[in-house]
Amino acid sequence: MSSNADRLQLVREFIVQDFLFGRDNGFASSESMLDSGMIDSTGVLQLVAFLEQTFSIKVEDDELVPENLDSLDSIGRFLGSKLGAPAT
Question: What are the two backbone dihedrals, phi and then psi, of residue 86, each rounded to the nearest 5 degrees?
């Protein structure tokens, strides 16, 4: 995966397919997926499994916080820190 934008596109596609039944409502990258009800606590675990498998990372228990996983923007920053790439 070459850029943060490419990574986030993969994450968006996963969220749309698995949580929005294939319908991308154009949610903003800054929108809280938990507050909006898009993803619940079980969904967070599915998202973590997807991130770990797709990007070959390990999400530690202390990293399972909304600051890392609540929006596409926060996921982008989190992935950037895990993969050693600057978030854009």
Answer: -70, 140
Question: Which of 63, 64, 76 has the alpha carbon at shortest distance from 28?
Answer: 76
- Both tokens of residue 34? 């938990």
Each residue's pLDDT tens digit, 10-62: 999 999 999 999 998 889 999 999 999 999 999 999 999 999 999 999 999 99
Q: What single DSSP character describes residue 71?
A: S
Give the CATH number for residue 22. Answer: 1.10.1200.10
Nearest partner of 48 among 58, 39, 38, 40, judged by Cα = 58
